[in-house]
Amino acid sequence: MVSQVRNKPAIEGRKVELFHRNQDHINDNPLLPPIVDGKAKFDLRSGKYLKTWQGPQHPGITGNMSLELVIAGDEIVECKTHVGYLHRGFEKIMERRKYIQCFPVVCRIAVPEPDFNEYLFAETLERLAGVEAPERAQWIRTMQLEMARLASFFMWLGGQGGAFGVQTQGQWTVTMRDYILDRFEELTGGRIYHMYMIPGGVRADFPEGFEDRLRETLDLCERTLDDVERTMFHNAVFKLRAKGLGVINPHIVEEFGITGPNARAAGWKRDLRKDRPYGVYDRLDFEVITRTESDAYARAEVRLEEMYLSIRLIRQILDRMPKDGPFFSPLPNPLHWNVPKGRIYLKSECTRGEYGYYLESDGSDKPRRIYVRGPSYTHAVSLMEHLSIGCNIADTAGLMVSLHTYPPEVER
């Protein structure tokens, strides 16, 4: 079914305020509920409303979330996000483990791209301990982050097409992700969880012939993206359903803490790779990609262009990085490593937006406090509940995927 009802971008503010801001819409729509003590009251016995649940239905991406929906006809009038269907407690687990034992844990916080957790945890430890990764390790780390970004976006791209009934692209994009995972397996020994970036650098250098095989994979990915752009982004059904869906008003970007492609599709030229460079991003040539339409289609366009950008950045890294030199700085015995007392917060630009790690050490061999700030919390909970109001129930899945959230980040 092609939806003819879109969420109303003119209705602004938080969920409680949605029924107050547009009085004409309220007066003209008899299905909207009365407001009592600042909250919408739904009389499910009246026959005007129906409460239904969407999800959880799949162990990955947005499938770990459940939406509690109240609908009037086929229009959503209230949405509540429920998480907790996967796993949780990672931060407290790490506070009871030695530093080196935390690396298998941090990977699980964002399964499709664990490398951002590896990087931030390693970098925070290096800053506190006064350790600096060698030059070649910095280039390799940046390359790994862009490989992870590309693989994660390929998973998202297939999901976004599938949510609107465009299924063929999902077969192509999952295949391309697997080819990238082949390169990860070759480089790190693991396909999903890599544990490759550790304090002091990386665990190993490139295997023989790795650069040539990675370039071949990038060429194949680029050709596939060309096909996806022609068959998905020029598809009339995808355009009809994605354009105008989930419009994010630029005025709420800061209020809701929106970052990443969701903010850039609303016209915000904000990217930590440019604004606060880390790794070797300050030595790479690229521009921040933005759109102004701020709907599901614009967010998809931004992510597609960022996939092309990741391919270009990896090629730049392979061309410019030192061809030899150390990839690891010596450390004390990791099982008896007392990190100097202090605290630090670092952040990077992952596929969903700004990703941050707070680490506090009391001078012992275990973290005193760890806190992870992932963009999925604001996007999956606050923003999803806000954008759902007025949305057609048939577009719920497409809207969820367009925000690109990872529930493990929320329930960590």
Radius of gyration: 22 Å
Distance between the termini: 36 Å
Shape designation: globular
CATH H level, superfamily name of the largest domain: Cytochrome-c3 Hydrogenase, chain B
Number of domains: 2
Largest sheet: 3 strands, antiparallel
* Cross-sheet strand order for the largest sheet: 3-4-5
Proportion of residues in helical segments: 40-55%
Task: Walk me through this protein's architecture.
The protein has 2 domains: 1-86 and 376-412, no CATH class; 114-336, Cytochrome-c3 Hydrogenase, chain B, CATH 1.10.645.10. Residues 1-28 have low confidence and may be disordered. The two termini are 36 Å apart. Helix 6 packs antiparallel against helix 7, helix 7 (168-188) packs antiparallel against helix 8 and helix 8 runs antiparallel to helix 12 (296-320). The chain has helices at residues 18-21, 23-28, 90-94, 103-106, 115-129, 135-163, 168-188, 210-233, 236-242, 260-264, 272-275, 296-320, 376-388, 396-403, 407-410, and strands spanning 35-36, 39-40, 50-54, 66-72, 75-82, 197-198, 201-202, 342-349, 354-361, 367-373. With 412 residues, it is an alpha+beta fold. Strands 3-4-5 form a 3-stranded antiparallel beta sheet. It has a 3-stranded antiparallel beta sheet with strand order 8-9-10. The protein contains 15 helices and 10 strands.
